[in-house]
Specification:
Elements: H1 4-15, E1 25-27, E2 34-37, H2 38-42, E3 50-51, E4 58-61, H3 64-87, H4 96-112, E5 116-118
Antiparallel strand pairs: 1-2, 3-4, 4-5
């Protein structure tokens, strides 16, 4: 049988949310506080910016713009190649949609591993 103090302690332990583990948040490079959620970080695109909720510093992905521009250039090259192959009466390879999908997945996986940096004015 639990005493009232033990019952209150168990109830409080069940109702409180455990503190954030280091894997649940990313650190801001400006203030070094772990306040940026992983879902926010994962949804950050190559051209997007994020504001730190603690210090208000604007953040972006390092090399995000360069990778984004490179990816768009590669997809434009593949699109031109498809257009030329289509109009020259040659068949387009059947694995081309798989190639485009795989390159997009690799691009998104690379974006997840990029570090955050302070935004510089353009």
């Amino acid at each position: 049988m639990l005493t009232t103090q033990q019952a209150d302690a168990v109830a409080a332990a069940i109702l409180t949310r455990p503190s954030a583990v280091s894997n649940e948040a990313c650190a801001c490079p400006a203030c070094s506080v772990r306040c940026i959620g992983l879902t926010q970080r994962a949804r950050l695109g190559p051209f997007a910016r994020l504001t730190c909720p603690c210090c208000g510093q604007s953040l972006q992905l390092r090399w995000g713009r360069s990778l984004g521009i490179g990816y768009v250039a590669a997809m434009t090259g593949i699109g031109i190649w498809i257009y030329l192959a289509w109009h020259s009466k040659n068949h387009v390879p059947a694995l081309l949609p798989a190639l485009i999908s795989a390159s997009f997945l690799i691009f998104m996986a690379a974006l997840r591993r990029l570090p955050l940096v302070r935004t510089t004015p353009i």
